[in-house]
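Can't paste images in this forum, so I'm doing it all in text. The chain is below; anyone willing to post the predicted structure tokens underneath?
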Amino acid sequence: PSNNYGLIISLQLLRGDIEQVRRENPLIFSRGVAITRKLGFPDIIMPGDIRNDLYLTLERGDFERGGKSVQKNIEVAMYVLYADGEILKDCISLGSGEPNLPEYRSFVLYHNNSPRWSEVIKLPIPIDRFRGSHLRFEFRHCSTKDKGEKKLFGFAFTPLMREDGTTLSDESHELYVYKCDENTTFSNHALYLGLPCCKDDFNSCPNIPSSLIFQRSTKETFWICTQLSSTKLTQNVDLLALLKWKAHPDRVMDILGRLRHVSGEEIVKFLQDILDTLFSILDDNTDKFGPLVFQSLVFIINLLRDSKYYHFRPVMDTYIQKHFAGALAYKELIRCLKWYMDRSAEVVRQDHIQEAMRALEYLFKFIVQSRILYSRATCGMEEEQFRTSIQELFQSIRFVLSLDSRNSETLIFTQAALLNSFPAIFDELLQMFTVQEVAEFVRGTLGSMPSTVHIGQSMDVVKLQSIARTVDSRLFSFPESRRILLPVVLHHIHLHLRQQKELLICSGILSSVFSIIKTSSLDMSVQEEIEMMVESLLEVLLQTLLSIMSKSQSQEAGEYVSCLLSLLRQMTDIHFQRLMENFQSKDELKEFLLKILCVFRNLMKLSIFPRDWNIMRLLTSNILLTTAQQLAPALHKNFAETDFDFKVWNSYFSLAVLYINQPSLQLENLSLAKRKKILDKYGDMRVMMTYELFNLWQNLGENKIHFIPGMIGPFLGVTLVPQLEVRNIMIPIFHDMMDWEQRKNGNFKQVEAELIDKLDSLVSEGKGDENYRELFGLLTQLFGPYPSLLEKIEQETWRETGISFVTSVTRLMERLLDYRDCMKGDETENKKIGCTVNLLNFYKSEINKEEMYIRYIHKLCDMHLQAENYTEA
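Text version of the structure:
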């Protein structure tokens, strides 16, 4: 290789088809750019894209020396000749951008009787000249002495089309070489066209005369390879017979039957011509050929469902919209489709029926477009007959789906094929019918599906997938159709949730429904839809969540929590009011309240959403708060006074305590900017829930005693939240507890004992602060100059004991906080021991709590042992 020469090229990728590239890059095309089409076909051949290029590769040859001492210098000349012997001009292209030539001459390899050329030549032969044309290759020896001297010594040829009308196949062809001399002129091409051009040709010509003008050189051969890129010429006999069916009208039945033997590549290549032919045959004799044309159409449609040919679907769409002309075809297509469906109950082998079901989408495209063409041509004649035929077709569809398929796997496959294809026809129907009419068709169809969930898991999945695609369809986005379709969708979801089957698919459907309703939330109809969903789904959603949450690491939990939150978020005061009114008895209401409060408590306890999903956690808290506020009136309205139910009230109080203590709501741990953002959007939700808790407590009346001392600990935990307003709201509840125990027992020993015990354990855990100690002192003010519920004399007694107790508790708080700070800090062992001694002395001498005294004696002993003060221990 030479180091002095090099070739530099630059590349630029341009996206889009050629017309788009021309529009977007006009400067590139102003410089005389050569456009080269792909060798072979592109991924998609659009209707109207006509092409007829034969690519010929000059491969190699093996030639005799011919009595010479050295090997020959062989040149090949190639010509394209028409049936009359005329050489076709401009039918040979050596490269894009170069002018077409009447002949091709190869390069010459010096002294080589077995040359390998491997040159590719494009032959853009007009379609009308292809039949009858042939290629002739002339072989010449080029003299090295006299450079102008080229002696003809042989030739080869091949027709471009076979006798049956198919073109030269895409493969290598070994051609016979015939001897001739330099004076041969080929003026009469008929002299050699009767000869065999290759081995296959020789086998089909048994009677070849021995006295021929041109003798075959048996030791010489010549190889070429051809590849045809044509949208009009085929190499398949069966396909050619279909396209030329008018030449053999008596063989149409056989021709249509053999279409299945044509390769998919050939069918998609000639898709427009094949479809035109099928509908032409249908027009010719509908009664005779209708079923076979229908089967052929179904076969082609299903071919395009194959992943290999799926990208040809736009070709079919373009054909239907712009090239299809079968204005009468819809009648036969509807008739055949209905015939197949009606036979599904009685036929054992249902392959053809299932194929028709899978082709439903494009069959309806053809039906609708055909009807549009007919209506256009006749100004809307036979409209009523068309509508009736579609209604009857849907009766057949409902019939297929209503059949009991539990004992027939074949029928299950038929129903599954129908359900898979069904949602794809909605858009076609919307071209001919109103939104409400199409929705009624769909509702009737979905409603005809068996309500049982035990017909088989695979069928359940198909059924739900069909519903999912219905929900995701354009039809479902219209409020007027949603009002019709939503009940049947919810019915099937309810059935599956009740059985705890196919939970993931059901959650996906519900998510889609909620998204659509949220998008349409300004429509009045949405309120009715939400009410429908509350009635059908709320209770079964809660039951599903309770079941899911009881399992560890259930992947459906997050999905169903989101569904529940979406529903609750879109419920208004009226929805909650109607929900409460719809319960037939208090037992039903109680069961519902316990379920929803239990689900809410589980949401607080379990990490359904990742820790860093702060926005989702805040939104969840906001929805739970709003719902809790809506549920509160039901408690004091239905379960207070003589109808008091401890379980329901306790469940609500437990939820409130968990809610207020949520880590995600502790705003003090956030930066000022984040805190402000949350407060601006939601306010302090802890305060709002505390008010709810306080109001409910106030509504308990005499039933407060049921929560003393049980709720002292949880309520005390709420007061340890470092939020002043929360504490101010909660402290009076402790006064109330003391007041009610004093009234019942004449003292508040229970409250006192529980309060001291919980204070000790909570502060030991690290909760509480200096502000808390000061705030607790405010409790003494509650025993000031305000009259209590007791008679004055009893009030005096209660007042003194209360103040004494609160003072003691405040002093206990001081010692507890000192003890906690001492233990947390880097204090000396002696100081820690001193704090512990102060605390245990307080328990012993001031408030006489022996069990607390003993607890701290043990702690003091452990500290002495740790410090190796064995005597003191």
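The beta strands are 52-62, 74-81, 103-105, 116-123, 134-142, 150-159, 172-179, 216-230. The longest helix spans residues 792-824.
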